[in-house]
Amino acid sequence: MDVRVDRDRCLGAGMCALTAPGVFDQDQDQGLVVLLDPHPPEDRHAAVRLAAGVCPASAVTVAEHGRPTTA
Amino acid sequence: MQHEPTHAAPVTLPTGRAAGCPFDPPAGLAQLREERPLARMTYPDGHVGWLATGHAAVRFVLGDPRFSSRYELMHYPFPGGPEGPLPPAPVGDMTGMDAPEHTRLRRLLMGRFTVRRMRQLTDWVREITAEHLDALERRGPGTDLVEAYARPIPALVICELLGVPYADRGRFQDHAHTLMSMEAAPEDRHAAMNGLLEYMAELVAAKRAAPCDDLLGDLARESDLTDEELVGLGGFLLAAGLDTTANMIAHGTFALLSNPAQAEALRDDPELAPQAVEELMRYLTVAHTSVRTALEDVEVGGQVVRAGESVTVSLEAANRDPERFPDPDVLDLHRRATGHLGFGHGIHQCLGQQLARVELAVALPALLTRFPALRLDTPADEVPLRTGMNIYGVHRLPVTWDED
């Protein structure tokens, strides 16, 4: 799994950091998404997919088996 | 998802809630969602636009920048609203702006409301909550929970964060309340807005003169906001923080007392609180309705919304969509409600949502734990409901318990 984040789209809602902590965080000055782990272990995949799905700004992208999927 | 036959007659927005169902969306929304999750809707001003009730349609409209939030483009969906087009959003009212104006303000603020920063407030929120539980106990059985608990806790929190003296609340609480009413006459809304801005202008002048270490103080010192923007934004943030969480605490308590097994589950397992908050946000959806207007022709689920047409999005109907949440009309604190639209979706998704989560996850279980025998002090069907308000909930919630 390859995870990407787009800090230009990010609106700091914090849904990713809430849903998949350890993979995502927010920087403490601006609240923008910080990607802690672009290749999360398999036991985090479900949480990461959920985080991508609930990002209100579609700023989280997950690619699996070379096939990109967006929220 | 079924598609609407083109000849189906436009509907009007259902607003009346069925008697005895204080937690359910207005009757009529469920059937509409099943038959026509995106339906043509006739607005009170005669405009023929749309009503989105399905989770997928609502989420799509809120997440797509081709739909504008600007007030001056929208048609008002509730009866008794303003005649003719609405004025543009007042300066600082972020809900009525699009990018890039909205982005500029949001980016100034969002670092202040991160998950981590809000969680750091947990102990402080616990202290405030404990003080109000003590006060509730002193007042004794029969007390109105809204006035004694649900309103003051979020009000104290937002005032402290913004740097608004809580002691001044007599100067802004009623104004904020009027602004939340869908039924308030335009002149009353205008007066309330002026009153709120007048108060905020004095406060901002004081912050400019002697900046202090709170959100408005920091913005006064560090941002490029004009006085007018800072005043408008301060009024907006204050109003947004006062009524929303307060109604979730009161209505959430009402829902838990009406579902004793769920209340017991939350009381018995403090770890359940974060999940319980998500489910209550889904189930109650006190911020129930929003409107967007298409800036160009947009295809939504096989139908085309034309440029200039308004779409009323029913967040409360979307959060009861069985295609997204099985058994949606059941309050089940153990369900995974993540993905609900109780805080909205898209660029306008609630800025203060992580604060609300902390407040609710503290205030609801603490109340149930301190008063294990808490119950309504009035028949459930006599609890006055906030129909006709932008934020749904209860006006009063008289509660009682057994004294030791």
UniProtKB/TrEMBL annotation, chain A:
The keyword Iron-sulfur applies. It holds the Pfam family Fer4_15. The keyword Cytoplasm does not apply. It comes from the Bacteria. Residues 1-29 form the 4Fe-4S ferredoxin-type domain. One of its GO terms (molecular function) is iron ion binding. Keywords: 3Fe-4S, Electron transport, Iron, Iron-sulfur, Metal-binding, Transport. Its cofactor is [3Fe-4S] cluster. SUPFAM superfamilies: 4Fe-4S ferredoxins (SSF54862). Ferredoxins are iron-sulfur proteins that transfer electrons in a wide variety of metabolic reactions. This is Ferredoxin. It comes from Streptomyces roseolilacinus.
From TrEMBL, chain B:
This is Cytochrome P450. SUPFAM superfamilies: Cytochrome P450. Residues 1-22 are annotated as: Disordered. Belongs to the cytochrome P450 family. Gene3D superfamilies: Cytochrome P450. InterPro entries: Cyt_P450, Cyt_P450_B, Cyt_P450_CS, Cyt_P450_sf. It comes from the Bacteria. GO terms for molecular function: heme binding; iron ion binding; monooxygenase activity; oxidoreductase activity, acting on paired donors, with incorporation or reduction of molecular oxygen. The keyword Protein transport does not apply. Keywords: Heme, Iron, Metal-binding, Monooxygenase, Oxidoreductase.
